Amino acid sequence: MYAIVEIAGQQFKVSKDQKLFVHRLPNEEGEKVTFDRVLLVDNNGAITVGAPAISGASVEAKVLKHLKGDKVLVFKKKRRKGYKVKNGHRQYLTQVVIENVVVK
């Protein structure tokens, strides 16, 4: 059984006991989170598609920890002008584990 759910503006394919990294959530570590925007559910071949979301379906998860992602270097240059800018970015992430996919 898996579901496609929207979490913090991004869509993820999730199943039970799966760990994934999402954009930073405001919840504390160890806290339970419920995502209500479920777009598709596959229950052993029986596929339910929402328009746009499935009413009554939800995904329950638990926040494991907050962390920062790998550094991404941003380098800008204009040739023959002497313009060079080097910048770095580390995205704030939250690691969650999916505990249950609920369909009513």
Automatic annotation (TrEMBL):
<dbReference type="InterPro" id="IPR036164">
    <property type="entry name" value="bL21-like_sf"/>
</dbReference>
<dbReference type="GO" id="GO:0005840">
    <property type="term" value="C:ribosome"/>
</dbReference>
<comment type="function">
    <text>This protein binds to 23S rRNA in the presence of protein L20.</text>
</comment>
<keyword id="KW-0699">rRNA-binding</keyword>
<dbReference type="InterPro" id="IPR028909">
    <property type="entry name" value="bL21-like"/>
</dbReference>
<dbReference type="InterPro" id="IPR018258">
    <property type="entry name" value="Ribosomal_bL21_CS"/>
</dbReference>
<keyword id="KW-0687">Ribonucleoprotein</keyword>
<dbReference type="InterPro" id="IPR001787">
    <property type="entry name" value="Ribosomal_bL21"/>
</dbReference>
<comment type="subunit">
    <text>Part of the 50S ribosomal subunit. Contacts protein L20.</text>
</comment>
<protein>
    <recommendedName>
        <fullName>Large ribosomal subunit protein bL21</fullName>
    </recommendedName>
</protein>
<keyword id="KW-0689">Ribosomal protein</keyword>
<comment type="similarity">
    <text>Belongs to the bacterial ribosomal protein bL21 family.</text>
</comment>
<keyword id="KW-0694">RNA-binding</keyword>
<dbReference type="Pfam" id="PF00829">
    <property type="entry name" value="Ribosomal_L21p"/>
</dbReference>
